[in-house]
Amino acid sequence: MSLRLQARKLACERDGRWLFRDLDLEIRSGEILRVEGPNGSGKTTLLKILSGQLADYEGSIFWRDAPLRRVHRNFLASLLYLGHAPGVKAALTPLENLAWYQAMAGTGGTEAQRMSALEMVGLRGFEDLPAGQLSAGQQRRVALARLELTPRPLWVLDEPFTAIDREGVADLEARLAAHVRGGGSVVLTTHQALDIPVPMCRVRLGEGKGNVAS
Ligand SMILES: Nc1ncnc2c1ncn2[C@@H]1O[C@H](COP(=O)(O)OP(=O)(O)OP(=O)(O)O)[C@@H](O)[C@H]1O
């Protein structure tokens, strides 16, 4: 079934200030939506709204043409959200972190799958160290290994390139391209220049109401 996430006349206010107003956007299978804007313009807030984590907004969101609030459970089964912090548990090893993520996602999975995912993000040899002893970029890579492990068609990724080295950036760009070419969708924020040869729409915040350009 093809994907379609739409927002109509979205508005969100914080501390008496509109982060965005009258914001329309849409993302379908095979597309990347990039949310841009300066620090504090509301990118994280918009991603949390679009991933069903915040309810204090105005306007409407539709998932596959149904109101998001009505099909929330179904929507969550299609979503993989990675926040701007890596979200790894410092006392757990990368392997244990991935097992924990899988349990939270309600999926099973084998240690062989988790090892393979860690290998794909360049963490072979680090699987048994407490994650708190890994570098910032390595901790980010543990979080990114979830993209390999939890097959979900809609990815919402808040600054996924943070702390990643140049080779890792190229690998992640290729991973994102493969996902959308396979029919998936990605909503992301990044301050990184991207080189991904797939259809990409942009939403710019911080310029008044939140302007949409493609
Ligand atoms: N729960 C909250 N209560 C009050 N204000 C908030 C809350 N969450 C965010 N804000 C404010 O909303 C604004 C937008 O925050 P947000 O994190 O969405 O920005 P951002 O564009 O992602 O920023 P950055 O590029 O720095 O990550 C900020 O000024 C922030 O202080």
TrEMBL record:
Coiled-coil regions listed in the entry: none
Keywords: ATP-binding, Cytochrome c-type biogenesis, Membrane, Nucleotide-binding, Translocase, Transport
Keyword Membrane: yes
SUPFAM superfamilies: P-loop containing nucleoside triphosphate hydrolases
Recorded GO MF terms: ATP binding; ATP hydrolysis activity; transmembrane transporter activity
Gene3D superfamilies from the UniProt entry: P-loop containing nucleotide triphosphate hydrolases (3.40.50.300)
GO annotation terms (biological process): cytochrome complex assembly
InterPro entries membership: AAA+_ATPase, ABC_transporter-like_ATP-bd, ABC_transptr_haem_export_CcmA, P-loop_NTPase
Domain ABC transporter, chain residue ranges per copy: 5-213
NCBIfam families: ccmA, PRK13538.1
PANTHER family cross-referenced by the UniProt entry: ABC TRANSPORTER I FAMILY MEMBER 1 (PTHR43499)
Entry protein name: Cytochrome c biogenesis heme-transporting ATPase CcmA
Organism whose genome encodes this protein: Halomonas eurihalina
Gene label: ccmA
